[in-house]
Amino acid sequence: MSKNIGTICHCGMMASRRYMPYCSEYCGAYKEGNYSKTPAGHFPAIPISCDLCEKVTDWRKHDEKARRFCCHGCKKKVLSSSIRRPLMNYYLLSNLKRNGGWISAQGMISLMEANGMTGTSARWSNLMARWVRLGVVEKWQERSETPTYRFRSNIKKPVGKIIIDKGA
Fold it and tell me: Taking Cα atoms as reference points, which of 76, 124, 74, 80 lies closest to residue 103?
């Protein structure tokens, strides 16, 4: 049993397994960005950049889930990309970008499960191989009896743009 079960977010809601120790990605951005409540006691709108067109929009506490796109059109454009399995690749790259450091394929399992994607470390490693070839992801191999590969994001532009550009 996990020791984090029953953790309460700073806003008073139950923390989510996906965004631990926060209840949502918004609460994490709110706390880490040092925002403060409005004079009326409401959570502020946090400016975010669209993951495709880079247009800045407001992200509010009551918005469901993580807000990554400015409109449904941008989201649809990314998810209907010509690349095979665009949603899975989008989550894979956005998780790598958000993680920041080196992560093993084994470590990707829990990140991808939080997005509702199941698979083995071999599956995520094979999926990352394409992005390594295209220079979007770096690969490093630990020297040991059983080699462990670690991956790190090389992403400088929005993930949605990469999915569309590399899918062509």
Answer: 124
